[in-house]
Design a protein that fits this description.
The chain is of the alpha/beta class and about 500 residues long. Helices cover about 35% and strands about 20% of the residues. It has 16 helices and 20 strands. The strands form 5 sheets. It has a 7-stranded mixed beta sheet with strand order 1-5-4-7-3-9-8, sandwiched between helices. Strands 19-18-17-14-20 form a 5-stranded antiparallel beta sheet.
Length: about 500
Amino acid sequence: MAYTNSPLVAYTKLSPNHSGQRTHSIDRITPHCVVGQCTAEGLGDWFYKSSTQASSNYGIDKDGRVGLYVEEKNRSWCSSSNANDQRAITIECASDTSEPYAFRDIVYQTLIRLCVDICQRNGKKKLLWLGDKDKTLNYSPAADEMVLTVHRWFANKSCPGNWMYARMGDLASKVTAQLGGADTASATVGTVSTADDAKAIWDRLYAVIGNPYGVAGVMGNMQAESALRSNNLQNVYEKSLGMTDEAYTKAVDDGSYTNFVRDSAGYGLVQWTFWSLKEGLLNYAKATGKSIGDWQMQVDFFLKEMAEDYPAIMSVLKNAATVREASDAVLLKFERPADQGTAVQEKRAAYGQAFFDKYASAAPAETLTSGYYRVRLSWSDSKSQKGAYRILANAKKCADENPGYSVFSPDGTVVYTAPEPVAQTQTVPFRVKVTINDLNIRKGAGTDYAKTGKFTGKGVFTIVEVRSGAGSAAGWGRLKSGAGWISLDYCTVI
């Protein structure tokens, strides 16, 4: 084929660091993070040095200017993989210097435009993000498809950083939409839930949780577990069972596969694995007459689990003041993967933040300019009203002081429900063992009180007072040291 280069290029300095003409046609794009707010000229100077032993086809600098360093016809040295670089257009993007290596908006918008241009000139109508290394590397793109890959799949690196990694699906969606290759915003192959469904998942979760931070924390974990694919079968079991996601789902639905409950295979949006959880999911699917892979059924079952079996987590989701707080609650107390370290926590929170940035504008305004948030037992029971507020935080506080009450938007939609009061079961003082490293200490009993900026760390602490409050089902304990209050959800009484 005849190779061309992008007309978006604003600066050219061709690097000697390349392998000559490609041995494979272009069917991949690999975005990278530079780890620095570079200029196009500075990046070109760096790649021009033979001692650098690295290059990329394109670079996008901190001001959104596109640099050309290796022509598209040639293989760059960028991804720690000869096989990937032979078929990928590689793009270095200016970023912050520390995790999550965020891009400026102008850089991200230019990346979208450049990917659209690359696809158009190479005859592609869809840009795909499959969200999984094995699936991607074993996937054979159709003639009109381009696939996204990432550097971290080929080397022990964070690249393109958690900020960009969390937006790979969004990049695929936006590019494909501009190419006109799909009638939805999604270009993810083999999924049950499309990008349109992602917004629907957000809305469905939000209708019950009522807190955008909580919803984002859930969806960030779903992204990490399944790439928001509700028919996702854990990769290792695809191999051991000899079934694809689709085949497994069909076999469970039609009854030809009878070991769904006991096979220990992670499945679905949150990768249900333990037998009792999978049994509950299967029974719920049958009761509702839905496929085991139906995303709406799975979301409803997840919410049912939270309300009935994990009330402490649900309380955090409803009252979290940050995405990280909600994400960690789901990660550490529900998902509980083998690796629960700081890097995993940060990655999942970054996924959640991307959803928050995309969808939270649809959440209730923190302050109304017209109408009121009303605190009632039900919307129809106007006589039960405890107050009407312009500021959402004040309405939530009123609901918290009145168990059983909810906050309603001006149109009667529930936006918040107060957690149930905590029963006092311990005689103070008593000692607790904190089981996480970064338990926040707050100035009062609830997530509606400010953080002190300090953490307990793991250890044993003495509690001298217990109060109910937002964000904790087990209640809030006042530390004997006088440092403040901690959520007892993360403590074990000893």
